[in-house]
Design goal:
The chain has 13 helices and 14 strands. By secondary structure, the chain is α/β, with parallel strands linked by helices. The longest helix has 22 residues, at 287-308. The protein folds into 2 domains: 5-43 and 288-394, Aspartate Aminotransferase, domain 1 (Alpha-Beta Complex); 47-283, Aspartate Aminotransferase, domain 2 (3-Layer(aba) Sandwich), CATH 3.40.640.10. Strands 2-8-7-6-5-3-4 form a 7-stranded mixed beta sheet, sandwiched between helices. Strands 9-14-13 form a 3-stranded antiparallel beta sheet. The protein has a two-stranded parallel ribbon with strand order 1-12. It binds 4'-deoxy-4'-aminopyridoxal-5'-phosphate and glutamic acid. Glutamic acid is lined by residues 13, 15-16, 37-39, 100, 125-126, 174.
Length: 397
Amino acid sequence: MKFAARVSLIKPSPTLTIQAKANALKAAGRDIIGFGAGEPDFDTPQNIKDAAVRALAAGFTKYTPVGGIDELKDAVSAKLKRDNGLTYKRAEIVISCGAKHSLFNIAQVLFEQGDEVLIPSPYWVSYTDIVYLSGAQPVVITTDVRDNFKLQPAQLEAAITPRTRAIIISSPSNPAGVTYTLQELQALAEVIVRNKIMVVSDDIYEKIIYDGLPFYTLAQLSDELKQLSVVVNGVSKTYSMTGWRIGYAAGAEEVVAAITKYQSQNTSNPTSIAQKAAVEALNGPQESVEMMRTEFQRRRDVIVRKLNAIPGVSCLNPQGAFYVFPNVAAYYGRSFAGKTITNSAEMATYLLDESNVALVPGGDFGHDEHIRLSYATSMEQIERGTDRIGEALLKLR
Ligand code: PMP
Ligand code: GLU
């Protein structure tokens, strides 16, 4: 079969691939501990599910406006005002089928061949491929672990060329849980505004943030920055609604109009009843959000301590999201049963084969010395899984 060239520009999402592989092995009876999936292990809160059931019973099952129902746009607008101090009207908000879909649509309407899009690394696996699919060139800026993987203003400045169109930035980030302070964002903002590049701010982990740190998004720092920004967020992580596929983008009216036009020729509207559920998520009681956040923080404390206790492994303490990104390169070059581990993909395969632990190679996030573990799983699995990793690593000679 002859395929369009764009298909060979990208790879299957590594996170979703590992997740599927772990699930298949589990179904086949293997005692797999899954650190692969980047999705909360909690059920969607009952009030949100009830809202969807009510919508279904009421026959809210037809096409909705392409960019989402007004009720949901109003809930998003109120959220952006309440939580982020940002004012966006309906025409500046578009609802999509998940934050990934919003990011994809933004890239499709803003970027094209000849453009460069800056992506600090470690980065979420899909950013680069989403940029490739737009025809633009992703320009990866490798951050340093000694800077806690935070992009430095001088690095940003050095990466900007006349072709630079935008930067994709996320705080807290996936995979390293990098969470910028206000001062750090202000320093980056100065470079962004002076060079007039656009900002795609992926705020999906806004509510999963630890140690009492406040959340800031670049758009709230100044009017100029708001004009340059498209804010992306969604309900997947905050409300444990990964399967419902509701995300959104807020930005200049003309950008939102372009996304809505684009969306009208692919998915049309996001699922009608999921939109009603998202209204309840944003407007309803928020206790479950804090419950999940507290539990993630407890798990983070345990997993970071246990990983750092393995000789040769070093793991930063993430301040948000639900991933850890330890460096395991001390074990590269070592072997077990005649097989030498030389990179993160081989390490992930070894740990799956040898210790039944599923995780994602760091190379997929731009840092091959690392592996990524999601701790959106039970404390018991975290305890057992990290023990298994330690035992497997110590078998390498
Ligand atoms: N951004 C980041 C950084 C993510 O980790 C994810 C993972 N789901 C997404 C966006 C997409 O989320 P969704 O499409 O489920 O809203
Ligand atoms: N974002 C999650 C992850 O990084 C979910 C899967 C995906 O869409 O990548 O594992």
